[in-house]
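Sample intake sheet
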Amino acid sequence: MYSIEANSGGEIWLGRRKYVNLLAGQQSKKQWNVSSHLSHAYSVIYSMKQDSQGRLWMGIDDEGVLRYDPKNDTFKRIDLGMENIDVRTFYEDEQGQMWIGSEEGV
Protein backbone atom coordinates (compact mmCIF):
# COMPACT_ATOMS: atom_id res chain seq x y z
CA MET A 1 0.00 0.00 0.00
CA TYR A 2 1.44 3.38 -1.00
CA SER A 3 -1.41 5.87 -0.52
CA ILE A 4 -4.78 6.20 1.22
CA GLU A 5 -7.54 8.79 0.75
CA ALA A 6 -10.98 8.93 2.38
CA ASN A 7 -13.85 10.36 0.36
CA SER A 8 -16.80 12.43 1.61
CA GLY A 9 -19.04 9.32 1.70
CA GLY A 10 -16.78 7.49 4.15
CA GLU A 11 -15.29 5.18 1.53
CA ILE A 12 -11.54 4.61 1.35
CA TRP A 13 -9.33 4.77 -1.75
CA LEU A 14 -6.17 2.62 -1.67
CA GLY A 15 -3.29 3.30 -4.05
CA ARG A 16 -0.99 0.41 -4.90
CA ARG A 17 1.32 -0.74 -7.64
CA LYS A 18 -0.80 -0.69 -10.85
CA TYR A 19 -4.10 -0.75 -8.92
CA VAL A 20 -6.48 1.59 -7.15
CA ASN A 21 -9.16 0.11 -4.90
CA LEU A 22 -12.32 1.59 -3.41
CA LEU A 23 -13.42 0.15 -0.08
CA ALA A 24 -16.82 0.51 1.56
CA GLY A 25 -16.41 -0.46 5.20
CA GLN A 26 -14.12 -3.46 5.16
CA GLN A 27 -15.38 -4.73 1.80
CA SER A 28 -13.77 -4.06 -1.57
CA LYS A 29 -16.31 -2.17 -3.65
CA LYS A 30 -14.29 -1.86 -6.86
CA GLN A 31 -10.76 -2.29 -8.21
CA TRP A 32 -9.16 -0.76 -11.29
CA ASN A 33 -5.94 -1.75 -13.03
CA VAL A 34 -4.61 1.65 -14.08
CA SER A 35 -1.57 0.33 -15.97
CA SER A 36 -3.44 0.52 -19.30
CA HIS A 37 -3.55 4.33 -18.83
CA LEU A 38 0.17 4.60 -18.06
CA SER A 39 3.47 4.19 -19.89
CA HIS A 40 5.10 1.87 -17.33
CA ALA A 41 3.40 -1.32 -16.21
CA TYR A 42 5.18 -1.13 -12.84
CA SER A 43 3.90 2.34 -11.86
CA VAL A 44 3.03 3.09 -8.24
CA ILE A 45 0.25 5.41 -6.99
CA TYR A 46 2.14 7.48 -4.40
CA SER A 47 -0.44 10.16 -3.64
CA MET A 48 -4.19 10.72 -4.00
CA LYS A 49 -6.66 13.53 -3.43
CA GLN A 50 -10.40 13.62 -4.07
CA ASP A 51 -11.50 17.07 -5.26
CA SER A 52 -14.73 18.97 -4.58
CA GLN A 53 -16.26 17.51 -7.77
CA GLY A 54 -15.64 13.95 -6.55
CA ARG A 55 -12.79 13.22 -8.97
CA LEU A 56 -9.77 11.31 -7.69
CA TRP A 57 -6.35 12.75 -8.55
CA MET A 58 -3.47 10.26 -8.41
CA GLY A 59 0.24 11.03 -8.34
CA ILE A 60 2.07 8.25 -10.17
CA ASP A 61 5.75 7.34 -9.84
CA ASP A 62 7.54 8.63 -13.00
CA GLU A 63 4.15 9.17 -14.71
CA GLY A 64 2.75 12.46 -13.38
CA VAL A 65 -1.00 12.63 -12.78
CA LEU A 66 -3.91 10.36 -13.57
CA ARG A 67 -7.43 11.56 -12.74
CA TYR A 68 -10.44 9.30 -12.23
CA ASP A 69 -14.00 10.61 -12.74
CA PRO A 70 -16.45 8.30 -10.91
CA LYS A 71 -19.47 9.92 -12.58
CA ASN A 72 -18.33 8.62 -15.98
CA ASP A 73 -16.04 5.79 -14.74
CA THR A 74 -13.20 7.25 -16.83
CA PHE A 75 -9.49 7.92 -16.36
CA LYS A 76 -7.60 10.86 -17.87
CA ARG A 77 -3.86 11.56 -17.99
CA ILE A 78 -3.12 15.15 -17.01
CA ASP A 79 -0.31 16.67 -19.08
CA LEU A 80 2.09 18.58 -16.82
CA GLY A 81 4.49 19.40 -19.64
CA MET A 82 7.26 17.25 -18.12
CA GLU A 83 8.28 13.63 -18.49
CA ASN A 84 9.22 11.15 -15.73
CA ILE A 85 7.85 13.35 -12.96
CA ASP A 86 6.99 12.07 -9.48
CA VAL A 87 3.89 13.76 -8.03
CA ARG A 88 3.85 13.59 -4.24
CA THR A 89 0.98 15.81 -3.06
CA PHE A 90 -2.19 17.67 -4.06
CA TYR A 91 -4.02 20.65 -2.61
CA GLU A 92 -7.35 22.08 -3.77
CA ASP A 93 -7.77 25.78 -3.02
CA GLU A 94 -11.02 27.66 -2.29
CA GLN A 95 -11.55 28.39 -6.01
CA GLY A 96 -11.39 24.68 -6.87
CA GLN A 97 -7.92 24.92 -8.44
CA MET A 98 -5.82 21.81 -7.87
CA TRP A 99 -2.22 22.50 -6.90
CA ILE A 100 0.24 19.71 -7.65
CA GLY A 101 3.48 19.20 -5.71
CA SER A 102 6.26 17.20 -7.30
CA GLU A 103 9.99 16.62 -7.12
CA GLU A 104 10.26 19.63 -9.47
CA GLY A 105 8.23 21.97 -7.23
CA VAL A 106 4.63 23.24 -7.44
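Comment: The chain has a mean pLDDT of 88. The two ends are 25 Å apart (CA to CA).
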